[in-house]
Design goal:
This protein is globular. The chain has a 15-stranded parallel β-sheet that branches. Strands 2-4-7-9-12-15-18-21-24 form a nine-stranded parallel β-sheet, with no helix packed on it. About 5% of the residues lie in helices and about 40% in strands. It is mainly beta.
């Protein structure tokens, strides 16, 4: 436990013999030399984190991937909303679980077939926040568009003092959540306009063949859609959906064969709680809430 520094009053300083009159004064020839390099390095690192990273600028991206390896704030854009295949990856190998990672998306437009457009790797133990400004598009094919396979928390919200939109599209992974054949949990949406779509994964939740759990929507406008998975919950072919809570916002969750909210095609949904907000959950051949009828 760190010792709290003691703050002395003027009277205590005098008692200790540290009055203003007794403070040492250096002449110009006696001023000691100090090394400014550490402070300059810290300032450079802070400026690097505070700069806006244009993903269309290949000088800012290495091998098609911008990798976040330390905690802090990261601000991304695509100049003139230009589409790029360059991706964002969060690598938690050297990031403490006590840290926060804040990602600001400002008119980002990623369309890639080489991985998730934005990937939070399983090594990440820190809380990740994603803040939205403008219209942001994440489009991946086989992989989840916004991939979250780790156990730590993800929170999506508007950027401060503005509104933003996120459109996340995948085929086999979730729009937001698990990659192909991977589960996902601990996703919270607090604000913004969020549209998440998948063919075989959940719109929000598990990828094809796996589960989605501990999903909370507290605000914003959320549209989650899947053909064979749940709109919100599990992916198709073995993906259950559980511990899903909606307490605010405007939510539309739809599926063709899976549940609107709950299990993907062929699986179950449980512990679904609606305590606030406006919620519409429908399925063409399954059920709005819970377990699809097709096994």
């Amino acid at each position: 436990e760190e010792e709290t520094p003691k703050i002395f009053t003027n009277e205590e300083q005098e008692t200790a013999g540290e009055t203003d009159e007794e403070l040492s004064v250096f002449s110009s020839e006696e001023v000691p030399e100090f090394n400014d390099t550490p402070d300059e390095a810290m300032a450079a690192a802070e400026n690097a984190q505070n700069e806006v990273i244009d993903l269309t600028d290949n000088t800012k991206v290495s091998g098609g991937v911008y990798t976040i390896t330390s905690a802090g704030d990261y601000k991304f854009t695509c100049s003139n909303s230009q589409e790029t295949a360059n991706r964002i990856v969060v690598d938690g190998t050297h990031i403490s679980e006590k840290d926060n990672i804040k990602i600001y998306l400002d008119n980002v437009n990623i369309n890639t077939s080489t991985g998730s457009a934005l990937q939070i790797q399983s090594s990440v133990q820190a809380q990740v926040y994603i803040y939205l400004e403008g219209i942001n598009k994440l489009n991946s094919g086989w992989n989840a568009a916004l991939q979250k396979d780790n156990a730590a928390k993800l929170t999506i919200d508007n950027s401060p003092n503005t509104t933003g939109e996120l459109i996340a599209i995948s085929s086999y992974g979730a729009g937001i959540g698990g990659d192909h054949f991977k589960s996902s949990s601990d996703i919270t949406i607090r604000g913004g306009s969020v549209t998440a779509t998948s063919t075989f994964g959940a719109g929000i939740g598990g990828g094809q063949g796996n589960t989605g759990s501990n999903i909370a929507i507290r605000g914003g406008s959320v549209t989650a859609t899947s053909d064979f998975g749940a709109g919100i919950g599990g992916g198709s072919n073995g993906g259950s959906g559980s511990n899903i809570t909606i307490s605010g916002g405007f939510v539309t969750a739809t599926s063709s064969i899976g549940a609107g909210i709950g299990g993907g095609f062929g699986n179950t949904g449980s512990n679904i709680t609606i305590s606030g907000g406006s919620v519409t959950a429908t399925s063409t051949y399954g059920v709005g809430f819970g377990c699809p009828t097709h096994k």
